Amino acid sequence: MLIPLFSTPLTSRKPSSARRLSRRKGGGGGGGHSSGGHTSSAGRGGSSGSGKASNPNASKARSGSIQSPGAKAGGRSYTTSTYSTGQPIPLSVIPQGQLFAGRKMGGGSRGTIYGSRTYGSGYPNEDSQRGTSGRDFPFIFWPIAWVVVADSTNTLHPSSSVPDNSTSASYLNTTLEYGTPTNDTRPGGPLAFIIFTSSPGLSSNLTTGNTPSTFYVLSDNTTITSLLSDLSANCTSFFSAASSSSNTSIGISNINSTTDLVIPRPEQVIQYYRASSIALALEGYNNSATYFPDPSSALDSALPSSMDTNLMQCLNETIGLAAPIPDGAASAVFRSTGVAYVHLSVLVLLWLMKMVV
């Protein structure tokens, strides 16, 4: 479900515009544009501020290595990139004998990284589907595994033991498929999250009142570690006044329990990214559509008017621009170089055997 403001096809949008969230139905829109390893659109924030990067060094591209979903069964390694559009890795089918055999990997790009508030969004050309069970891996990373969900009476339960009268929440229980959040076989490692709280002293950042907003960014440990420096640097002006107090918490929190009720919950999510493998959540937000029995007629609850829109827009746009995604071009070089080394090693071995004979 997309915001009406961003219902135009992706191909008709200017690549320099990062997607912005609205207080109405749906999620955000399109990706960013990079030039020379730097983002050229760290963004346009709310009407009263800007989401532009406050630290020019924070926009530099980085690369790393992740493993495919078949990592424990001899899966490949892929190079990831930030602040670049990258080239999607070619679609391939996970072979028999590996985890998730028969599913496809690849095809995801920076331009298709945004989803909506629906768990199961953020997949290329498949934003309307709810749930992630049986889905492919366009960005290699696995979708988030939720720890707790609410039942029809808004009572919290571990996602693996949702009561029978709450079948509308069953699509959120993927722990049997992707493991618990502490599963270390997940590409990028176990799930973790960062907490960002806006400064109550910066009232100009808030739409109404002087109440700070608390946001959570949830994903695998590798992604969270990568995003931490970018989010802290790009959005520092929206919480820097409180950085020395307990009002702002900037650091990685690991999930140590499968029944921890303190971590972000699915009804608090205001935006999914990268095939639902990253989520931006708002404390106090309760999206009734998350547990609505009929997803085709579910309407997202409006975002609160007291929310700090500037911090929200900055977090949203920075995640879209800086989240690590597989780089097909770099991965192709990595694979071809590896093959070349194998061939060279064989030739050297044959030469040595000939010398011995």
Automatic annotation (TrEMBL):
<protein>
    <submittedName>
        <fullName>Uncharacterized protein</fullName>
    </submittedName>
</protein>
<feature type="region of interest" description="Disordered">
    <location>
        <begin position="104"/>
        <end position="130"/>
    </location>
</feature>
<feature type="region of interest" description="Disordered">
    <location>
        <begin position="1"/>
        <end position="91"/>
    </location>
</feature>
<feature type="compositionally biased region" description="Polar residues">
    <location>
        <begin position="55"/>
        <end position="68"/>
    </location>
</feature>
<feature type="compositionally biased region" description="Basic residues">
    <location>
        <begin position="16"/>
        <end position="26"/>
    </location>
</feature>
